[in-house]
Specification:
about 130 residues, alpha+beta, Alpha-Beta Plaits, four-stranded antiparallel sheet, about 30% helix
Length: about 130
């Protein structure tokens, strides 16, 4: 299954520690049999509302494929980390098109069944005096 994980890191964390945290999350996915597709660091951004009296956060988007048990383990790690302000894991569903094209006979039935739209005259509006 495919997942997207977005998490917000405390901006008080220095760059080396932040890189180590991002690497740790990615390595945990790989150690549990998952495959990292992309890691996008969105950088420091203003939060919609303050979290723990902090107005800014460092956003990271992680796309990966893994078994359903892996997101639970990742969320457990993120939950106990004091440097993570918020996180959200979303499962990405692959949509397939299963709509069959209409046959010629079905198209003709659809045309006959649709109501004819006629132009209607708009009533004149009364003038205000």
């Amino acid at each position: 299954m495919r997942y997207e994980l977005i998490y917000i890191i405390d901006t008080a964390l220095d760059e080396e520690a932040r890189k180590a945290l991002i690497t740790r999350v990615s390595e945990t996915i790989a150690q549990n049999g998952g495959e990292i597709e992309a890691v996008e660091e969105w950088g420091k951004r203003r939060l919609a509302y303050e979290i723990n009296d902090k107005p800014d956060g460092y956003y990271v988007l992680l796309k990966y494929s893994a078994n359903p048990e892996v997101p639970k383990e990742i969320e457990r790690i993120l939950e106990i980390s004091d440097d993570i302000l918020r996180y959200l894991t979303t499962r990405i569903e692959v949509k397939t098109s299963r709509v069959k094209p209409r046959t010629q006979q079905q198209r003709s039935y659809a045309r006959e069944a649709s109501p004819k739209v006629q132009e209607a005259e708009l009533p004149e509006q009364e003038q205000e005096e």
